[in-house]
């Protein structure tokens, strides 16, 4: 394909992606109210467990509609992401070798899987502990939970955990470019413990040790998973180097 043909193909893929995003946002707006009920469930359960009123509030006339629109936009982006990734694939795939295509697909699938695992961990494990502690720490005050502030908290926690669960992917690329090795990661494990502890203390919005430990446990598992991934990368590179030396010999 010529340069102009590449530009025409790129324009087609961008237009198709925008159409998919628009359609996803329409669907997202249609279901955003039901989805928010699901998002609000951890907070509702935490309020009920503390024997408090489980109704969330909004403090401005546009608070509810702003939340529904914002949530609909986010849902639209999530729903449209497979279509957008497919358009990106259609654009780059013709220029890739077969093994490169397989590697790209493995990267995309593993990244999405780990990101979803992070969100699931945050929703089913992290949030119940965190919200129960926060509501139990009310003192002489009565909590009135604003829906917009609650949504902002949920977004930070879930997206943050989704990104943290990408740690094995990060370690994979660092090992691929010889920046880290399994031996280096194991040797510097004590520094990893310190960094993970600091991250847990900064990101976790509660000061209790239980929530921090719940947050730190998957990070340690992901670190060791990253060590295993880096070992596979190093072993494969050594085999390829050995085969190349045999061919040269």
Task: Report on this structure.
By secondary structure, the chain is mostly helical. It has 2 domains: 1-165, no CATH class; 167-249, no CATH class. The protein is 82% helix and 0% strand. It contains 8 helices and no strands. It has helices at residues 3-49, 63-92, 98-136, 147-164, 167-176, 182-187, 189-203, 209-248. Helix 1 runs antiparallel to helix 2, helix 3 (98-136) packs across helix 4 (147-164) and helix 5 packs parallel to helix 8. The longest helix has 47 residues, at 3-49. 19% of the residues are buried. The mean pLDDT is 85.
Notable features of this structure?
249 residues, mainly alpha, 8 helices, 0% strand
Which helices and strands, and how do they pair?
Layout: H1 3-49, H2 63-92, H3 98-136, H4 147-164, H5 167-176, H6 182-187, H7 189-203, H8 209-248
Helix pairs in contact: 1-2, 1-3, 3-4, 3-8, 5-8, 7-8
């Amino acid at each position: 394909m010529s340069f102009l043909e590449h530009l025409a193909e790129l324009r087609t893929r961008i237009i198709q992606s925008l159409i998919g995003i628009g359609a996803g946002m329409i669907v997202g707006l249609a279901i955003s109210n039901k989805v928010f009920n699901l998002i609000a469930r951890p907070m509702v359960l935490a309020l009920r467990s503390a024997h408090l009123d489980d109704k969330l509030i909004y403090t401005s006339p546009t608070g509810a509609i702003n939340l529904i629109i914002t949530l609909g936009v986010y849902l639209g982006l999530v729903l449209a992401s497979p279509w957008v990734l497919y358009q990106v694939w259609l654009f780059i795939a013709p220029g890739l070798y077969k093994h490169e295509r397989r590697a790209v697909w493995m990267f995309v699938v593993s990244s999405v899987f780990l990101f979803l695992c992070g969100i699931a961990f945050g929703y089913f494990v992290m949030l119940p502990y965190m919200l129960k502690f926060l509501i139990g720490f009310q003192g002489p005050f009565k909590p009135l939970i604003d829906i917009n502030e609650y949504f902002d908290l949920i977004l930070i926690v879930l997206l943050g955990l989704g990104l943290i669960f990408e740690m094995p992917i990060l370690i994979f690329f660092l090992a691929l470019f010889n920046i880290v090795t399994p031996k280096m990661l194991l040797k510097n494990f004590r520094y990893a413990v310190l960094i993970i502890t600091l991250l847990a203390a900064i990101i976790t919005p509660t000061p209790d040790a239980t929530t921090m430990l719940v947050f730190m446990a998957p990070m340690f598992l992901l670190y060791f998973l990253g060590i295993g991934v880096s070992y596979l990368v190093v072993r494969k590179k050594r085999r390829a180097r050995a085969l190349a030396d045999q061919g040269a010999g």
